[in-house]
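Lab channel / #folding
Pinned by the channel admin:
"Please post every new chain as: sequence first, then the structure tokens as a reply. Keep commentary short and put observations after the output so the thread stays searchable."

First post following the new format, from NK:
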Amino acid sequence: MKKFVNPFLLFLLCCTSLNALAQNHFPGTGNVGIGTTAPVNKLTIDNGATRDGLTILSDGSNVVYSDINFRVKDLSAFPAGNVHNWVISHRKDGYFSGGPTLSSLEFYGSRPGGGYVAPLVFEANGDVILASPYAVSRSGNVGIGLLNPQYKLTVAGTIGARKMKVTQETWADFVFGPEYQLPSLQELDAYIKVHQHLPDMPSESEVLADGLDLGEMNRKLLQKVEELTLYIIEQDKRIKVLESRSVAGKD
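Reply from TO:
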């Protein structure tokens, strides 16, 4: 017994299969408007007088990211080593913040041939990471008020702060150690006459040229205070000896 195949049903099945694999395409010219009939860019969204926006959803897995890419299409004339693709990435693996996190928004760039820079990361605990050193080929510096920062944070202006903490690897208490050789006042006087500044302290020209290391300068200042304390103690001992001799002479 022969089976009859309805041509119309076969055609409908083929169209349905092809449509399941199809993607939406738009003409190469013209713009797309959502909420407007007069789009001015490739995509124009007009929210009108309502609070609205875009939503990108993912299932929250560590290997699923929601990315927005800004990419250079033609790299033939692109300077070698420069970032060609900037990404705004909502992710859960904390790739540029040192480990898994509940959620992070990471701004990073990739270079042709490999390597990343990650200038900005927002973490779920409220921390903000600038110039991340993690998993990148170059960490970079942060500049405020200037175009060419030379340090991790370079500010062309005044910084206001209630408190500042500077960590140090050494401190000045060695002055009170038994092996420390305190210069005599005569040696100190001779040094000052030649150099016009205290020993182990930077000169005016050095400070004007190179600036100050606050932590190191505080260490040096404390060293001078401790040396001055030793001079005072030594002078006090001499004064007491002279006083005792004066009393003995009167007797």
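NK: The longest strand covers residues 116-123.
TO: also worth noting, The radius of gyration is 36 Å.
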